[in-house]
Design goal:
Elements lengths: L1 E4 L10 H31 L5 H25 L3 E6 L9 E5 L6 H7 L4 E6 H5 L4 H6 L3 E3 L3 H12 L3 E4 L17 H9 L2 E10 L17 E7 L5 H5 L4 H22 L6
Parallel strand pairs: 2-8, 3-6, 3-7, 4-5, 4-6
Antiparallel strand pairs: 1-2, 7-8
């Protein structure tokens, strides 16, 4: 299944000034939306009946739906076009979704595709007044680098949750290949039923590491998300001790992403 929103791609790119204004409005909307969720929406959802798991599910589905609407706003306002391939294979029980991280909105687009997803997020987002409300209500996992984080992530998978991880830990430096930490592979071996790689490309590059939001590209950027074939982590677990299996799985994932990203590189005549 392929979901595309690039019907405007053959039309002229909106003027630079308009896209700058629309980008600023997008960031303002995101921040105000986070505060509104924290102050109004999630307190109201907490009044609904149900146990802790039901409340967590409502919060995650709310975040997913609002992220989808946010992507639609960026698309309709002319900031971006997007294409998603294989989204129907996301969101399965015990699935570890591993993605590269080229831009600031990767997690937004990815969570928008999965109605009830857990996610490992940077510790700084837990303290950010605009994001900590949704993150805590959805019970996402803090990437604080501790052994407890690895335990929590593996346990979430064992419980049948879908978990999203960006093994780089931060956005990819433009022009460089992604570098994966072995934490994701270790979590996969300890708790995942299956591992699904998701390759993300953004063309032209924008919202990269250390790049301010107002430095927008010369044309509207295209966001492409492609879901790869599933990987059985037990194939690697059976090949040796945990540290060796973790290294082999991490190397396998790294080679997969390098190969897939090379397919998306523009060719010159």
């Amino acid at each position: 299944m392929e979901l595309a929103a690039d019907s405007l791609s053959n039309r002229p790119t909106p003027p630079w000034l308009w896209r700058l204004i629309a980008t600023g409005l997008s960031f303002a909307l995101f921040g105000l939306g986070g505060l509104c969720l924290r102050v109004v929406v999630f307190p109201l959802l907490a009044l609904l009946p149900g146990d802790a798991i039901a409340h967590r599910g409502r919060a995650r589905k709310t975040v997913s739906r609002l992220f989808w609407l946010f992507v639609q706003f960026m698309y309709r306002s002319g900031v971006l076009t997007y294409e998603v391939q294989g989204a129907e294979r996301l969101g399965r029980p015990g699935q570890l979704v591993i993605a590269n991280h080229p831009s600031l909105i990767d997690v937004v687009v990815l969570i928008a595709q999965i109605r009830d997803a857990n996610c490992v997020v940077k510790q700084s987002l837990w303290e950010n007044p605009f994001t900590r409300g949704p993150i805590r209500a959805a019970q996402y996992i803090s990437n604080n680098g501790s052994a407890e984080m690895l335990d929590e992530a593996a346990e979430a998978l064992q419980q049948g949750q879908t978990l999203i991880i960006f093994p780089e830990g931060t956005r990819t430096t433009p022009g460089q290949a992604p570098q994966f930490h072995r934490g994701a592979a270790s979590i996969a071996l300890r708790g995942a039923r299956l591992v699904t790689p998701v390759v993300i490309t953004v063309s032209p590059t924008t919202l990269t590491k250390a790049e301010p939001w107002y430095r927008i590209p010369a044309r509207r950027f295209h966001f492409h998300l492609r879901v790869g074939e599933d990987i059985d982590p037990q194939v690697f677990a059976a090949r040796g001790a945990a540290p060796i299996a973790s290294r082999r799985l991490n190397d396998h994932l790294h080679r997969h992403f390098i190969k897939e990203l090379a397919l998306d590189e523009p060719t010159t005549a």
